[in-house]
Amino acid sequence: MSNTVTARRPVADSAPLPVSLKQPRLPRWAPAGLAVAAAAVGCGIGLAAGLESRVQWGLIAALLFVLGTFLLAAAVEGTRQAKDRLATSLVWICFLLAVIPLASLIWETLARGAKVVDGYFLSHSMGNLPDAMAGGGIYHALIGTLQQVGLATLIAAPIGLLTAIYLVEYGRGTLAKAVTFFVDVMTGIPSIVAGLFILSVWILILGFGPSGFAGAMALAILMMPVVVRSTEEMLKLVPNELREASLALGVPKWRTILKVVLPTSIGGIATGVMLAVARITGETAPVLLLVWGAKLINTNPFEGAQQSLPLYVFQQWQIGTDAAYDRAWGAALVLIAFVMILNLVARGIARWKAPRTGR
Prior knowledge:
mainly alpha, 71% helix, 0% strand, flat
């Protein structure tokens, strides 16, 4: 049998059309260019319409920016990418809406408070100085704030930390649920309620007079739930594998918490404590009820009326003179600087105590 080989003629296939994997994209400068154009058009519309408020100009510009971004992206990149850019532009608009008032507040405080903040302002009190006259300082209020916030932190931070450890590491059953419920309730308590509670118990029932310590106890009530909640969330973020590895080596649970859990979460705990301190530093109502305020320097927080920076700002603003307004802005600037320093210290402690990674 002879083997025959049949040669097949190659079939001429049509060449495939080139398919591009890259979709059309807007250039990187497009969002910035759209923002500038929207701002210019918004200002033009505001001027043409006779709108006096710059806020209205900004809202018009924001609306034009969002609308222009969506339409341009839909025309060039497609509907799917246009929706993504729409969401991104809305996030940026909301971010600016949150930042602009904050930046305006800081700028206004710096511009007005820097005129009076100097060595004399920080080292003198209002003793024997009429409220309508220029001069005076915040030394007595600064001492009062440092002592009251310090005492409140010494009371609230250990209690809040231990409560959070109990809820995360030991808390089971009815007691843990009750503690969680009351912590949630205390989180929403108005500051005036805490002040009235200490006023009724400490001053009216027990018979003690107004003092910085009384104000510190009210501030501690406001601070404790914030410390508990923030510490609890940070402790929950610690992986259970770390606890199990320590317990598998025979380490007692209390030592595991002390040497493994707390060092791992110390950064978040310090940040939570500083957030709580920042909240109570600006409270005025409890201090007004329990500390009363004083023009003279009182370095004893356990006896006699004291002053604090928030109450000082409130009282100077009530006076209504130009000199009093300047002192109020200066005290507000010092108060903001005080909170910022506390946050920087907390970040330093968190970085110093954070567990080392790598070799």
